[in-house]
Amino acid sequence: MAAVRSSSAGPGGSKGGGATAKRGVTAAPSAPRKAGAKAAKAATSATSAKSAGATAATGKKKSFSLVIAGSGGAGVMTAGTMLLEAAARSGLYGLMVRSSGPQIRGGEAAALIRVAQHPIENMDDRFDCLIAVDWMNLQRFADEIPLDANSVVVGDPNEGEWPEAFALSGARFVPMPFKATAKSIPGAWPNMIALGLAAGLLGVPSKIVDEVIAGSLKKGGDTLEASRKAAAAGREVGAGAGVGLDGTRKGDGTGRWLITGNEAAGYGAIRGGVRFVAAYPITPATELLEWMAPALSEVGGVLLQAEDELASINMAIGASYGGVASLTATSGPGLALMTEALSLSVTSEIPVVVVDVMRGGPSTGIPAKSEQSDISIATSGLHGDAPRLVIAPNSVADCLAATQWAVHLAESLQTPAIVLSDQFFGQTRAVIDRPEDLAFKPGRAIATAHAEGYRRYADTPSGVSPMAIPGTPGVAYTADGLEHTERGIPSSQAADHARQLAKRERKLALADYGDRWADIEGDADLVVVTLGSATGPVREAIARASEQGVAARLVSVRLLAPARPEVFAGALAGARKVLVVEQNHSAQFHRYLRSVYDLPGEVRSYCHPGPLPIRPAEVLRVITEWSQE
Amino acid sequence: MSAQAAATAVATKISPVTFKSDYKPIWCPGCGDYSVLSSVTKAFAILELEPHQIAVVSGIGCSSRIPAYTSCYGYHGIHGRALAAGTGLKVARPDLTVLVAGGDGDGYSIGGNHFMHACRRNVDMTYVVMDNHVYGMTKGQPSPTTEPDWNSKLSPGGTGLRVFHPLVVALAAGANFIGRAFSGDPNGTAEILAQAIRTPGFSFVEILSPCVTFRPEQREWKNVVRPSPVEATDDPVRATRRLLTDDGFNIGVLFKGDRAPYAPPMGKARKTAAELEEGFAL
Questions:
Q1: Inter-chain residue contact B76 with A311, CB threshold 8 Å
Q2: CB distance from B17 to chain A under 8 Å?
Q3: Stretch (H or E) spanning A548
Q4: Which of A208, A364, A585, A616 is the most buried (most CB within 10 A)?
Q5: Which domains does chain A have, with CATH numbers?
């Protein structure tokens, strides 16, 4: 349920009185849940149709969104991954989101794909085409796959009626007898028909599709030939479906990467110097670990599968105490288990990085779907006065740079860093321009052997004190979670506590974060403040608003913590209207911002929980309506 | 001791004192942990190590204060997680000698899961538990090794729970070296510790270390401990039978296996970080 909340009275206002429902957006949060959800849905599809119509009227198809869906085992994820690669090799950009039902294996699955001539960071409001290899449980995706009268549904006419949920959209039906066609080509599978069909829609040359098929099939011979024939059969239907992307291409993908956010975060960590990872499997962070395990052994590091998250984080801190940059990755439930040890990292000043790939919460929640709902625990979740770094990458590509930056900051400031990725980034595969290799300097300040009068926790002007690494003679000390003196001797004296608290706060406050703390675009007095995977849709909404003559400024905050009021005030200078956009139910980001900053002008919050993404049209509507008030 | 090592030891005058810090322990007078500290430093001296080559890692509790009382690198982390920290440290820094130390509450209760998995994992480090069958730092609550009828404010009339048998659990979970020592015999304890540290893989040494404040009756332990009547075995079946039938006061090395330690290669790079990007390029 989406909610625009006017918050001049403060974000924590009562649900009924403090929250204001805006025309055409949603019912008030106090309205019955079902009615509210329905209203939101109706509003969304109305706007979607409008925006799609406008796109059609201009005759330009800026991007094309399609879904390949089917029951588990139908191979739709394989087909989607191959399609994205083929599209990339034909010079297109794009991304693919994986969506699956609640089953671990064997349930319905959908590959949600958006391609364009330019880099893509988020999904569109609607889909141009749904390719259903079969109809099994497909209606469960109805919320995630908005269609309209300009959409096309391709399905098997011999396998029964298409789900009402999709038929009601007014989409046009294009028959493709998947089963019969596959049967007519010995050794062929319906998903390869879907691949060819989608390639036909996108104008991806059959030569490239054939190369991708050959590259992904381990066996050649008959299977390869059957798959090519199946793709060719699909292509014919796709080419005649009456929708598609125009054929202009820039380049052939050379110099571009195909990467998921989880892989990007893992690679960023390695580029940042991480050589030890301990972790416990958890959706949707597991793939990050599965990528890092072999990669670390290549570069002389190690990944250790721990018995639980308590072990993971403590192993990582133990390894980091030994001088090796260390990391663990998890999701909300695991982060909750790690918070005690993160406070140890703060007090003992042993750096560690935690990548939190956020999912629907609380508790087990919705494990395989995205939600920005760990903002509160990340920024405020530790016990004691515990300054920490919280960094939110804002694109699949930025998962690399932001994680590398997080490692650099954690190491040079000797403190924990939490990287707030999410399921959307983590499990989305995207075509990105090759990222520059960032070389952050310096790293961890190290004590030299036999340093005269060494004090591990010396109260230096910068707050950073050199760390002795075990094995170095003459500077041995005990790292301690107990409050301590500058030498590291446990102390419960007020003066020592005050000195060390101030030291730990100061080193984060005085650090040079440069321009990387946020992405700021434009200088309009209507400012949209957002973070993470909400950034893509907000950026697209602002671009569309600009086409309609409405200017808005984007502030996508990468460094959530520490808070730096002066720098933030600079980014919001001249703001009269501030809209905070995020994907969670309780406006966690908005409430955090209000707690650490004085926001100028009138402030409103726009938020809704996962699993539905923030879509550009929702944000566009809020921006344009508010601009007219 | 080789001639060269002996010469080095003489040259640098390594003795138990070398491994003691100038920081005064917080322990009560008469606490068994003083003797354990002495045994630990003796073992380091026997092994001719140097303080900077050793990391003493602990969690929380009276006995977990031991790292700062040594002149080695110390890590005093959080309650129950000492083995996890020690595991990360040893895997990342195989060159260091890692000694993890703590008490029965830290190791068998809050840290019980890590105890089991550290035995399984068999990383080359030594785990010392100073067992006094009580939570001393929080002033007298029953631990997993406390007798079921021991009365306390938190569990009036006793917990009614069967005592935890750490040595049997360690053996079942895969510890490669298992010994029991008594703090009242510092020299014997030092010998057992030296053997434990020298033996590759995960070595577990349970040290009966009386809490004279909350369990004054443990002063009697000195009258009931005895050297184990049989030699250490490498046969887990025989060891299990012995451990299940002894009364908890047999002192010595009780099991010594030859399982290869878990030691993934650290620092042996085949590629640079930059070369990994090949995997992503179109």
A1: no
A2: no
A3: none
A4: A616
A5: 3-52+516-628 (3.40.50.920), 62-239 (3.40.920.10), 258-432 (3.40.50.970), 445-512 (no CATH)
Is B20 part of a structural domain of the chain? no
Residue B1: is its pLDDT beyond 50? no
Q: What is the pLDDT of residue A120?
A: 94
Is the model more confident about A25 or about A195?
A: A195
In a domain, B176, yes or no: yes
Provide the chain B residues 58-87 that lie in CB contact (below 8 A) with chain A.
67-68, 71-78, 80-81, 84-87
* Sign, CA torsion B71/B75/B78/B81: negative
Interacting residues of A330 by C-beta distance below 8 A, sequence separation 6+ = A279, A280, A282, A285, A309, A312, A338, A354, A355, A356, A357
DSSP-based three-state secondary structure for A47 = helix
Pairing of strands A93-100, B125-131: unpaired
Q: What is the DSSP code (8-state) at residue B92?
A: H
Q: What are phi and psi of B250, to 5 degrees?
A: -80, 125
CATH number at residue B140: 3.40.50.970
Are A291 and A262 a contacting pair, CB within 8 Å? Answer: yes
Which residues 483-502 on chain A approach chain B with CB closer than 8 angstroms?
A: 488-490
Cross-chain residue pair A267–B277, CB shorter than 8 Å: yes
Distance in angstroms (rounded) separating the CA atoms of residues A145 and A65? 10
pTM of the full predicted structure? 0.93
- Domain extent, residue B32, equals 26-279
Residue B259 maps to a domain: yes
Contacting residues of B for A322, CB less than 8 Å apart: 55, 88-89, 92-93, 96
Q: Do A317 and B85 touch (CB under 8 A)?
A: yes
Q: Which of A298, A308, A477 sits opposite B270 (nearest CB)?
A: A298
Cβ of B93 within 8 Å of Cβ of A314? The answer is no
Q: What letter represents residue A486's amino acid?
A: E
Q: What is the rounded CA–CA span in Å between residue A420 and residue A392?
A: 5
Q: What is the per-residue pLDDT across A66-115, written as a single tens digit (0 to 9) for each?
A: 999 999 889 999 999 999 999 999 999 999 999 987 776 678 899 999 99
The least confident of A158-167, A614-623, B16-25 is A158-167
Return all residues near A303 (Cβ < 8 A) that are at least 6 apart.
Answer: A276, A277, A278, A279, A289, A292, A293, A296, A297
Q: Which residues neighbour A498 within 8 Å (Cβ) at sequence distance 6 or greater?
A: none
pLDDT, position B55: 98
What gap in Å lies between CA A81 and CA B91, rounded to an integer?
Answer: 37
**Mutate which: A314, A320, A347, vs B, most B CBs within 10 A:** A314
Torsion of CA A218, A224, A228, A230, to 10 degrees: -100
What is the Cα B108 distance to its own chain's centre? Answer: 12
Gap from A591 CA to chain B (nearest CA, Å)? 31
Tell whether B181 is within 8 A of chain A (Cβ): no
